[in-house]
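Possible race condition, two jobs.
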Amino acid sequence: MTSAVLKPTVLKPATLKPATLKKDKKKILGEIFDDARIKTFLDLDAQEGLDADFHVLEKAYRGMGPENFSTLLGFFIAAGRNLNAVNPQGQTMLDILSTHAPAEAYLTALQQHLNQLNS
């Protein structure tokens, strides 16, 4: 009887593709964003460790069109919320929107509201 010799198996690391951002956000079709619906974003709960104001701004950016986002910013300011809130990496929404080419309309709305606060 001969014994089999086992060869060690060499595991290769999985090839990871870098994360990429989509060129354009898909619009939510069919959802009506009246003022009451827009204001519901102000009630969103953030997970522990995430600034609630940043969370609202990010969710609004990801879930609304530019006009609705601009409307939300007015409600956001009226509620005494912080447009300069930061994520755990220390970035404001202004910082993030400045790096997203498709976010130009959102960036313009945010800058206009920040300018109104500072004037």
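Job #2 (started ~2 s after job #1):
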Amino acid sequence: MILLQSMLLGILKVIEVLIEIEIFAILLRAILSWFPHLRIPWLFRLLWVLTEPLLAPIRRAIPPWRTAGLDLSPLIAIFLLWAFKVVIIYPVKISLIYGGGP
């Protein structure tokens, strides 16, 4: 039982780190979009590959022309990732740590 709890906690930690990396990549992409003269092709390609699968569906649901030209997809994506951590990951971790024993 303790081995299973440890494995699940490890998996949850990996998911949590991946969410943090995604949030960092979204923030970096948004900030770098304000400075078009600082184009670093490999970095933009990497950020595009990491963030576009999450941002594109949000952008299709709420196109920038509906929000006065502002692309709110990074803000919404960060909020959704944060909410996933708070609503799903943290309660499961707490139940595994404090409520998982006999």
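The chain is about 75% helix and 0% strand.
Logs attached separately.
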